[in-house]
Design a protein that fits this description.
By secondary structure, this protein is mainly alpha-helical. The chain contains 24 helices and no strands. The two termini are 31 Å apart.
């Protein structure tokens, strides 16, 4: 079979054993182990291996318990691979099919794994209630089986879910449980990443960044691109919190490189949004806009309404198949169980009605949340575009003003040349007086100031004007306009020229503003107003899996 080549020694060992396997049962087990090993650095190859396993199983007419168990195991792997590449509908379909097979054949280990994968799926969908429910069901089975490795992983994933849901106390409890059971370096690194996240929330950034850098080295050595990308992202987030934007940019670039190798779409959405924000902070507005466009394209690809409908259809289809199986079992039972069948039918109808009501309510909530997300995205896009326009407007204004000065100078020189050519002294005096009046008229022309206010001031001071209009409604429009000039760093004399008034009038207006805001003469008006903003620009920390 044509698997892609790899330099991993363990994977090569499995591949060699597969080629010399003498029967299907041994070969299938080795192929699934190979898929498990290679998916850390080559998901597409792992998926090909698993599909070959399923094809081998389907070719057997009589499938024993062993082959059904291996089929469920293969479906669980496909669910994990689809989850890594954000193929939402495939993830849910494979996990539900695996769970159904395991429940029918009473395979406790496979059931626990399928429940764990469903917990992972709903955590990525940010449905933390369902995620916690499935994780706890899977943990209950693993505790009965004394599955130490499986428990350690489930404890950690449950801890991450609590962390994402802002339940730090519960997150710390399950993180400690997981660390007590962890054996491999990779899993210990995952636990340490969760502990670093808690350090980040507590403000001990030096401890957090030390753990993340150690994880980067470990995951790079293990060639685990998914975890490596997450570690780079979290390291970048800490550097942003420390205002070290250059180091943050390096780690974001590395995270994007690793995520692209894995086709980790859900993580790429986060990474490009984070890098767009970072470029904006560094005043790299062109790069910020480009990253925002890429982020939006990835975001739209995983949040379309068709995908939501497919997920809903899969859920309903799975429930229908389960109900159909229950009906067949009742029909095959003895006649004395007809009353029980009738009762089950009534309960099923009631459940269906409840599910329909919940589905309609959930659809309304999803619509409301989608609308809210869209509004936030549009606002972020507008801010990025306005920031880009700011630099362009500054340059345009400078060019226009310079052009106006050159034009006035040229006209003046031409007029002086004509005046010198006049022989009559009285005519020369009259011409000089006319030129003087013209120059005064040019000096007082209001075109530049009006253009400055309409084409530049409103663009640059949009966020500041929003604060004034929402938080300081007692200020009149002229006072708000002067405050906008002040936030650009203009002095009273410069503002008076733009407003066509006196410096004393500007100072008088500032005095009235201080009286309205109850500020003394030493307080900084602009700093006071900006402190009333509700905008929070701190970087987010992502703990993803």
């Amino acid at each position: 079979m044509g698997y892609s080549q790899t330099q991993d020694s363990i994977a090569l060992s499995f591949l060699q054993k597969i080629r010399t396997a003498t029967n299907d049962s041994v070969k299938i087990d080795l192929e699934l182990k190979l898929a498990d090993r290679t998916h850390f650095f080559d998901v597409d190859t792992s998926r090909t291996i698993v599909y070959n396993v399923l094809e081998t199983i389907e070719q057997r007419k009589n499938q024993s318990y062993y082959y059904k168990k291996q089929k469920a195991r293969a479906l669980n792997y496909l669910g994990v691979f689809a989850m890594k590449q954000d193929k939402t509908d495939e993830t849910l379909s494979h996990c539900l099919k695996a769970l159904e097979i395991c429940e029918v054949i009473q395979d406790s280990i496979g059931t626990g794994l399928a429940l764990h994968n469903l917990g992972m799926f709903y955590r990525i969908q940010e449905d933390y209630t369902k995620s916690i429910y499935y994780f706890k069901k899977g943990i209950a089975i693993k505790e009965l089986l004394h599955d130490v490795d499986g428990l350690a992983v489930s404890y950690q994933m449950l801890a991450n879910t609590f962390f994402n849901n802002k339940q730090n106390d519960s997150a710390l409890i399950y993180t400690k449980k997981a660390k007590a059971l962890m054996t491999s370096k990779r899993r210990v690194a995952n636990v340490n990443a969760a502990i670093a996240g808690i350090h980040y929330n507590n403000g001990t950034l030096d401890k957090a960044i030390g753990i993340y850098k150690e994880n980067i080295a470990n995951f790079k050595a293990a060639n685990d691109q998914s975890e490596l990308s997450l570690s780079h992202l979290n390291t970048a987030s800490v550097y942003i919190a420390l205002n070290n934007y250059d180091e943050a940019a390096v780690h974001l670039d590395s995270a994007i490189f690793s995520a692209k190798k894995q086709k980790y779409i859900e993580l790429l959405v986060v990474l490009y949004r984070q890098r767009s924000n970072l470029n904006s902070k560094q005043k790299k507005y062109a790069e910020a806009l480009e990253d925002y466009k890429i982020y939006k394209a990835y975001f739209d690809s995983i949040n379309d309404t068709k995908k939501t409908k497919r997920i809903t259809a899969l859920k309903l289809n799975y429930k229908f198949e389960k109900e159909k199986l229950a009906d067949q079992l009742v029909l095959e039972s003895e006649t004395s169980k007809r009353e029980l069948y009738f009762l089950l039918f009534i309960l099923t109808m009631c459940s269906g009605a409840i599910i329909l009501l919940l589905y309609r309510k959930n659809a309304k909530n999803r619509l409301r949340l989608s609308k809210s997300k869209l509004e936030r995205e549009q606002l972020e896009k507008l801010k990025t575009e306005l920031a880009l326009m700011t630099g362009e407007k500054e340059l345009t204004r400078a060019v226009v003003e310079n052009s106006l000065r050159q034009e006035v100078l040229h006209k003046t020189l031409e007029s002086v040349k004509d005046i010198i050519g006049l022989e009559n002294r009285q005519k020369r005096n009259n011409a000089l007086q006319t030129l003087w009046a013209t120059l005064l008229s040019e000096k007082t022309n209001k075109t530049t100031s009006e253009s400055f206010k309409t084409t530049y001031l409103d663009e640059v001071c949009m966020d500041f004007k929003v604060i004034l209009n929402t938080k300081f409604q007692k200020l009149n429009e002229k006072e708000k306009e002067i405050l906008c000039f002040m936030t650009l760093g203009l002095k009273a004399t410069q503002i008076s020229e733009l407003q066509k008034t006196t410096t004393s009038a500007i100072k008088s207006t500032r005095y009235r503003i201080r009286k309205k805001l109850n500020l003394d003469s030493k307080a900084d008006i602009i700093t006071f107003i900006k402190s009333k903003s509700d905008v929070n620009t701190e970087a987010e920390l992502y703990v993803l899996k």
